[in-house]
Amino acid sequence: MCSVARAMPSEGQPLGGEGTEPTELSKVPGSETQGVSNTDPAWAGDSGVFKGSQPVDAPEPQRQAAAVPALARVSSLARGLSSRVPERARLPAALGATALAGVLLGALVFHRAAPLSPNDELVRFAKRLKAPERDLVVRSLEKSDVLSALGALRDAGAYEHLRADPVAQALRARLSLLAKDPGDALDWLEQALALEAKLCDEAWVGDAVVQTFAANKPSRTGAMLARIPKAGALKALRGGCIDAQYRIRHSAAETLKGMNDACPDPVAALIADAWQADRCDQARITVQKLLPSLGSDDRIAPVLDVLARRPGSGPCVAELLPKTGK
Q1: So where are the chain's domains?
Q2: Tens digit of pLDDT for each residue in 162-197?
Q3: 33-47, 136-150, 225-239, 253-267: the lowest-pLDDT one
Q4: CA atoms of 8 and 17, how far apart (whole Å)
Q5: Angle (nearest 5°) at CA 318 between 316 and 324
Q6: C-alpha to C-alpha distance for 211 and 185, rounded to whole angstroms
């Protein structure tokens, strides 16, 4: 943490201090006594140019003190611009600037994901539904409203309709995965693949099945993988090796091992484990697996450095890391 040279004034003491002269930047027409002290060595004499810099991680009171010159600079600039605008045009200009700021703020606050195209694969899949909920689901997905689409298929009245429509069952499973509900996805994807074997040949199925490993029912997920073509299953499992979820990564790796195959990039999987290690024993195991590849893979050194500097894992793994001599 960088040290901070200037301190906050005590309570009740003006920022400029008694008897100090205001800088040129801080002079405001009609208020000659208002100003910021230039006795601080960070200011270059009477020029009013700030020479110092305030650390980003400085305590809040000190950051507020450093912000005072910036506020004076902005105030002076605003007054200068205002004086150049004809008096009759000042009010419309102020209103226009306020409206523009409001539009920009609203765009930031209320920004939503772009609506899905009518040709998006998930929308096209939803149009294959035979259930009466089809139109509502399609309209919701075209607005990128996954939860409303899923709610329409989870409605009590939709249960009987889904039982007779394997495409609707598969869509409910896919939407449940997007809503981070792998248990529901596992139940309905199993039913869909059992009712309609042709679904097993579709391109999306392999990835969806691998995602159900998150439900922690590996035997049921493995049974579904056995239903789909082997090439599709292997592709989905290899992709699952670097999934963001720990359970999916390790389940995919174990399944590949049982199929006499392996993850294409084991280092990437270990790096993901390292980032997510929240216990000392997990961090040590991951580091021990990464160290043999340290000299041949330049991705590993930065990760080990991060682990060594973490408050939780640092003391646990520091003794395992090679000494750099620094």
Answers
A1: 266-326
A2: 999 999 999 999 999 999 999 999 999 999 999 999
A3: 33-47
A4: 12
A5: 175
A6: 9
